[in-house]
Design goal:
It is a single chain. 69% of the residues lie in helices and 0% in strands. It is an all-alpha fold and 338 residues long. It has a single domain (13-314), classed as Mitochondrial carrier domain (Mitochondrial carrier fold), CATH 1.50.40. Helix 5 packs parallel to helix 9.
Length: 338
């Protein structure tokens, strides 16, 4: 059985949740401007102020015309959502892994099944928290967004569209994130087994493994991410869609231009922009996810390491050196960080 690396036996899920919270907030905050450009690249019929040719072009236009601070609009919603979402995500992932590993051990290929299933379970709960936060975030990221801040956006959306509109993209987000996390977790664990077989705390291995695993998963799942963006930003672009006849192009009347589910979003993107439209923003998505995933995993593993040392120290008496306490637990967790 693959013991949980880094935390001593008996550690509560709170330790995983604290590490996950710190990882999630840092991941989203550091890469937020790139995510803003990705949102604008993926929306249907963007206004002239956000018609970018590429990620670099988008970043230059955004900073030059709107200022760097503008690229952080909506980050409040992300921080409020990412904290609890990532706490539940990592905590549930580790809990499910501990439950599933004894039943999915197949010799040398022991844990790929448990990693994938644990990732799916964690993602379902994570997305239930993050979907409303993403809906608010992406509305605020749009060019000339009518909302003043995250709270104003939430209040006005609830008043005019109801709470269901915040979860309109939930299925699209699950369709993006479930395969993403399966690919992501399995790739990360595979890379770790090659780069860090001793399961020690080696920062560079977590950075490389996390970055490569995340960017690969991001590229593969871009089409459903485009659908999610279309669902979340459509109210901001509906006026433009009607003015250029997009409603006739996709078979809708002007009064019924709301795209209500992921399947309709997929059809609209294919009809209006073809296969190429499904991969809009792929470079921005990969560039966002690569450092974001590397940061998330490295910060998460770091806090696991810190918490494991703190937990190990409390197991010894006040007169017992930390080294002795650590050695005394080596028979409990053969993969403890050193």
């Amino acid at each position: 059985m693959d013991d949980y690396e880094g935390l001593p036996e008996g550690s509560s899920a709170l330790s995983h949740m604290v590490a996950g919270t710190c990882a999630g907030i840092m991941e989203h905050s550091i890469t937020y401007p790139i995510d803003c450009v990705k949102t604008r690249l993926q929306c249907l019929r963007p206004p002239s102020g956000q018609r970018y040719v590429s990620l670099t072009d988008g970043l230059c236009h955004l900073v030059r015309n709107e200022g760097l601070l503008r690229s952080f609009r909506g980050i409040g919603a992300v921080v409020c959502g990412a904290g609890p979402a990532h706490a539940l995500y990592f905590g549930l992932y580790e809990h499910m892994k501990s439950l599933l590993i004894p039943h999915t051990y197949f010799g040398s290929k022991s844990n790929h099944v448990s990693h994938a299933l644990s990732g799916v379970c964690a993602t379902v709960v994570h997305d239930a928290v993050m979907t409303p936060a993403d809906a608010i975030k992406q509305r605020l990221q749009m060019f000339n967004s009518p909302y003043h801040n995250s709270w104003d956006c939430l209040r006005r959306v609830l008043e005019t569209e109801g709470p269901g509109s915040l979860y309109r993209a939930y299925f699209a987000q699950l369709s993006t994130n479930v395969p993403f996390q399966c690919i992501h977790f399995v790739s990360y664990e595979c890379l770790q087994s090659k780069l860090n077989p001793s399961k020690e705390y080696l920062p560079w291995t977590h950075i490389v493994s996390g970055g490569l695993a995340g960017s690969t998963a991001a590229a593969i799942t871009t089409p459903m991410d485009v659908c999610k963006t279309v669902l979340n930003t459509q109210t901001h672009t509906n006026r433009g869609c009607c003015s250029v006849g997009l409603h006739r192009e996709v078979g809708y009347k002007p009064s019924k231009t709301v795209i209500r589910n992921a399947f309709t979003a997929l059809r609209v993107v294919l009809q209006t922009q073809g296969i190429r439209g499904l991969f809009l923003g792929i470079n921005a998505r990969v560039v966002t996810t690569l450092p974001g995933s590397a940061i998330s995993w490295s910060v998460y593993e770091y806090f696991k390491w810190v918490l494991s040392h703190r937990g190990v120290e409390t197991q010894g008496t006040s007169s017992t050196p930390t080294v002795v306490a650590m050695e005394s637990t080596s028979n409990v967790d053969s993969h403890s960080y050193r």
